[in-house]
Amino acid sequence: MFYKRSAGAVMNIVFRVILAMILLFSCIWLKEPAFAGTAPDLPEEVRDDQIPVLSLQIEEDEYPESLDKEVEKLRTFLTERQQWFNDHIDSELSKVFCEITFAADGEIVGNAQIRYQADLYDIEIPDLAAVGKEGSVAAAWIGPDGKALDPGEKAFDDMTFTAELIPEEEAVYADGLYFGPDEIWFDPDTQGPTYQIPYTTTPENANVNYVKWTSSDPDIAEVKTDGMVMLGDIGDVEITGELPSGAKASFVMHIIGE
């Protein structure tokens, strides 16, 4: 009789251990929020927040009682963690995308959504030549920090860029565009999937010197507004830059690889 009671007690402990393991694996699975596709990086303030953390400690000499205590701790942890996500889902955790807005003379001329911490060259930046008003010229996109837009900048929050308009009589147009080599060979397999065009404009005091880029074959190379080339198929492609003054310059990219 004593043997049967001991066996029953052992089975009860085994059942509780299995239950604790199931709950523990559920806890581990819930440790990070689930998103469709690749999980995006969360804002720094979320990662540093006081998300409930679990620590289980089971004493061998008080196994059944200690197990009950730790299972209850596990239940409390799961409840607190669920409540944390409920409290933050509409604030920090919703910052998966940032809204980027472009405005000129008080009017919105473009907007786009971009993934949190992604580079600004991932979006289509409006052409400055198309937003100038009568009697003025758009010279640059100015961000909330007062600096000109840098397409390599990462988006950490919603941002608005405003076109810097200067009077026509104060505009100094660049009339020279220089790349360097007339031809370059580029292997995306070893050099990466993008290429930033290095260029200079003259004269140095030009304040209207943005470049409009075109590609002879966008399937091979697509050029963003900032001169970032997004590479595609293997082949030869001609990249052309045009200044607001009408001056143009070109070079050839040979995209090679296996």
Largest sheet: 4 strands, mixed
Q: Into which percentage range does the β-strand content fall?
A: 25-35%
Q: How helical, in percent, are the residues?
A: 10-25%
Q: Give the CA-CA distance, first to last residue.
A: 77 Å
**Which structural class best describes the helix and strand composition?**
alpha+beta
What is the overall pLDDT average? 77
Descriptive account of the structure:
With 258 residues, this protein is of the alpha+beta class. It folds into three domains: 93 residues; 73 residues, Listeria-Bacteroides repeat domain (Immunoglobulin-like); 80 residues, Sandwich (Immunoglobulin-like). The chain is built from four helices and 13 strands. The chain has a four-stranded mixed beta sheet, with no helix packed on it. Strands 6-13-12-9 form a four-stranded mixed beta sheet, with no helix packed on it. Helix 1 packs parallel to helix 3. The N terminus is likely disordered.
